[in-house]
């Protein structure tokens, strides 16, 4: 009864896992396409309020072409992104504000300096030059975008920044919500090329001091996230990338030795089951990393990872349907089991290398894994040749024994006939 229940419920479980997998990843800010064909070299998914920052830094004139996007807002809302050169939070923030004025149907984008918590985001000049400020509301994505070019002061590129949104009433922005996300919508930003980390490690404690240097809380957040990435990588390399191929070699070659039967089966099952358990843990850490970075996604790595989880889960549940050796369906089950298993191994190796490239690990780690694969492949080739020698030798011995038995029977029949 329990086995039948698990088989019936498995498709539902698998569908739930698939939905959870895809749902844990948001859009990729790096692959976002602006309708006006604007292109930006760097981007960052901000950790709250479904916001994204895109920019291109021009060192020659120390300017930044910037686009701030806020997803999931209504046409009647206002959005704002600001930079604070000398502190953190609202006071002293130099804001870019945009909203759609329902009274006249005009989309407005302007600058607004903040000197008080009671600000109404009135238009005004900032402490630095801003040019080409504009904005738009995209109804198909429910997102509002502010475009601008910033002329950065003092030769600095790293600052505190904050972002907000709220409702508009009678053409005037209303105060924003005081929810946790709205209160935590601040962090540190570095406009130098390659600094778009897409990290969710920034929080309300992240800031930069008056010299533009980041505080230790930001560094700790970044280091913590990096450690999680390494844990994710180690778990998946060991399970999918190493234990799975080793388990396949055990099943392929050990069963040829009669003395290893049935020990090879239990060793194979233990190795693959352990690999699957560790692999699911690695897969879960990937989901956690993805859910914590709603603007970051690595499509090929993600798709292969989800495929591996599904195929690995199918292999585990297929054991419940494994026919007896003498059953007529066992032949077809073996074909399915072998094809699925080897597919998992190939995809695992491909995804390991994709993960190593994304982590940008040192070459010695790539070479170490390549060395492991070369050793394992060489051992598999040797064992393939050796086991085939044993199989052919047994066939020859069986054939000779059969021929001898046939000749003996014929001699006995001839003797009987002569008598």
Could you explain how this protein is built, in words?
The protein has 419 residues and is an alpha+beta fold. It has two domains: 2-19 and 222-400, Up-down Bundle (Four Helix Bundle (Hemerythrin (Met), subunit A)), CATH 1.20.120.1770; 35-214, Sandwich (Immunoglobulin-like). Helices cover 48% and strands 20% of the residues. The protein has seven helices and eleven strands. It has helices spanning 2-23, 180-183, 216-254, 263-291, 299-318, 330-359, 363-418, and strands at residues 42-45, 51-58, 63-71, 77-84, 94-101, 106-113, 130-138, 143-151, 158-169, 172-173, 186-190. The strands form two sheets. Strands 4, 5, 6, 9, 10 and 11 form a six-stranded antiparallel sheet that branches. A hairpin with a 4-residue loop joins strand 2 and strand 3. The longest helix has 56 residues, at 363-418. The relative contact order is 0.10. The model is unreliable at 1-27 and 197-222 (pLDDT under 50).
Order of helices and strands: HEEEEEEEEEEHEHHHHH
Q: Strand content of the residues, in percent?
A: 15-25%
Radius of gyration: 32 Å
Biggest sheet statistics: 6 strands, antiparallel
How far is the N terminus from the C terminus? 65 Å
Counted up, domains total 2
CATH fold label of the largest domain: Four Helix Bundle (Hemerythrin (Met), subunit A)
CATH-scheme architecture of the largest domain = Up-down Bundle
Instruction: Indicate the mean pLDDT.
Output: 78
Content-based structural category: alpha+beta
Membrane topology: Multi-pass membrane protein
Protein name: Cytochrome b561 and DOMON domain-containing protein
Function: May act as a catecholamine-responsive trans-membrane electron transporter.
Cofactor: heme b
